[in-house]
Specification:
By secondary structure, the chain is mainly alpha-helical. It contains four helices and no strands. The chain has one domain. Belongs to the SdhE FAD assembly factor family. This is FAD assembly factor SdhE. Keywords: Chaperone. InterPro entries: SDH (IPR005631), SDH_sf (IPR036714).
């Protein structure tokens, strides 16, 4: 639910798609990383996912997974 009620339509669409593709297969560590990522604000997330800004190291791996999943 937190993936699709973000506040900006862009992030709703990006994270909804990612969650539908990958969430069910995530292990506990990945779910924890995703949960931590969801605490960030949409403006930062959008810039990180679209490559407009560099993601912080603690989120870089998850951001790369989201960007990869949503490009296809």
């Amino acid at each position: 639910m937190r993936s699709m009620r973000r506040g900006t339509k862009e992030m709703d669409l990006i994270l909804m798609r990612f969650a539908s593709l990958r969430l069910a297969a995530m292990d506990t560590d990945a779910l924890d990383r995703y949960d931590a990522l969801l605490t960030e604000n949409d403006q930062d997330l959008y810039q990180w996912i679209t490559g407009q800004a560099e993601a912080p190291p603690d989120h870089a791996r998850m951001i790369a997974e989201i960007a990869d999943a949503t490009e296809k």
